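The methods section describes the discrete structure representation at length, but only in general terms. Since the whole study asks how a given chain folds, the encoding of that fold should be made plain. An entry of this sort, consisting of the sequence and the corresponding backbone structure tokens, reads as follows:

. . .
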Amino acid sequence: MIRDLRIRHKLLLLLLALVIPPLVLISCYAIWEAQNLGGDLADSAEAGMTRIAQRELTLAADLVDTEMLEARQSQELMLGLMAKEAAGLPAQSAEGTAVPSGAKSGLFHSPSDAEPEAAARDEARLAGLLPELRDLFSQGREEAAWGSVCLSGGTCLTYPPRPDFPAHYDARAQEWYREAAESPVPVWKLHVSPSGGRIVMTLAESVRGRGGRPAGVAAITALLRIVRENDSLSSGNGRSFRTMIARLGRRPDGGQGLFVIGDQVEESGFLFWERPSSRHWLDFDGASSWNRISAALDKGESALASTSYKGVPAFAVCKPLLGSDAVLVIISPREVIEAGGERAEDAIMSRTWRMTLVTGGLTLATMIAVVFLGLWGSGALTQRLAGLAAAARRLASGDLSAFVPVTSRDEIGELAQTFNEMGPQLDERLRLKQDVRLAREVQETLLPQSPPSLPGLDMAGAVSFCDATGGDYFDFLPYPGGGPCDVVLADVSGHGVSAALLTAVLRGLLRGRGGPEVSPAALLTRVNRLFSEDTSVSGSFVVMLHVRVEPGGPGRPARLAWCRAGLDPALLYDPAADAFSETLGEGVPLGVLPDHVYAEGEGASLLPGQVLVMATDGVWEARDTAGEMFGKQRLREVVRAHAGESAQDLVAAVHAAVRDFLGEAPQEDDVSVVAVKALPL
């Protein structure tokens, strides 16, 4: 059937159908028609290619604006975390807080009129935010950005360090600081970097202390830049573009205009903007061009107009940047934009004359007929392609239900079928991404923020998930009144949203455990019965180790009581005897047998210096690139080597040892470690 043929076959049949019947036309009429046709096509091609080039110029501005908007959205998430951490700063620094030297490291900046003692106290308070800032700006995630937390006294913490800030720099004098301190929402400002002449964008949010009083401002400053090779500004399309950042202002003659505040600089595959050596204004052709641009900027829209740059006629696209008073200007010489149309005109006219002179007569008449028939046939194809383009625009605007009828089995039909499959797949991916992000947030809230402070005990724990959401969970559950503390480590079957929800259920059951009179075995028996009601259909289960730590006192060591629910025994290391023992005991995983009665382990004392280490199988079952497992013997060696350090350092050492062992191999399971160390009373 005709509809099953390829497009090239259909065009061949169409042309043959017109060529085979002999056509006889008068030669002079054919020549006259050919010349007119060539002129019309040339004019149309010139105008069309000029419009295409102008649309490319407008699209380039839209892509730059979109790239900047994505950068701002990413920084808003980071800024929220920074402001939340800064709001929890204590009124005074903790005793013994180590403060790096601001003058040497570039971490701290204080105004020249600041009182040294007050600045030192503020630096000590701000030092507590360093771990959070290192995490946000580590591993090159924001290599061209830095975060700052500036207190109302003028002292600022900046990370990554900025030793190139001028000595007279005072953040309180900056426009972004003043506006953010008075605004209930984050503010965004475009300005020149204090450490150089490049244009930067700063997103700032006020920090409120106790009682809602203003305590300072948190800010993220990033170089205004875009990737050169990934945008429409690439010179590979044969066009010449120039980008600038401009701002509305009052011209010397009293009228309104745009003056340049940032000129394009290309470096290491990126486009930056630097402050020009002197102020210069952009000139547009006539009042109508400026009025059109001014009206579009007032509406927050982009506009195309004729201008001149360095004495050369050009086209310019002006687009407001993210709702600010800054304007992105992309300029291309008029001759570059119109060159394609002129080349098309010359090529068509030359071909028309050559065809007229060579073919003549009947050949010329036949070719004209073929051209007209080809135009008619291509119109039918163009109509189908236009339907695809309209559906693609609906999909780009967010309508994932966009659909194109499949009316043939040729290439366009295959393209339509592929397009129809794209929307549901995109919808599924977006839903999955949202579910994973929600599960990650849930799991982060389930883990303890810090271990409890119990006399004679040092406790710590950490989880390294292999996926965006893992199945491991640990918790410290102290009892009121300074009594015992339950330490829990669990491994929920599966990963993702289901594991996060099961972890939330398990956490709720454990936190409603009652008083210390309920033994660990009785507690797990009750939790297992309730947990099995939720997992009877899904078949999910949890392996867990529950350890109750009773703090010691004068002449009395700390005591351990435990109950196992399928998780491997914990290691109890005695540095004095250099000996390991395990928290042995039997017990099936939670959610398997609802009526199972759990038995408590024998119990043990935790003498000063001894360490209890709990871990999931993701530690010893970690495999390197050769397939070798980390093993429990390596875990014992790490515990033995770091037993004299704090519980936090011991946990970190185990995680570091597993990462070093994996090397280039992927982490296939969650890695969780909890340590409890007895201290001298």
Observations:
- Residues 230-239 have pLDDT under 50 and may be disordered.
